[in-house]
Amino acid sequence: MAQHKALDLILDDSVLFAMTALEKKATAEEVIEEIINYIDSEDRNPTEWERESLSSALGCILLGTYIAARNEALFCLLNKDQVAGPEHWWDESEDVTIQDLRDGLACARGAPPRGV
Question: Which of 15, 28, 29, 50 could cross-link 11 (Cys pair, CB 3.0–4.6 Å)?
Answer without folding.
Answer: 15
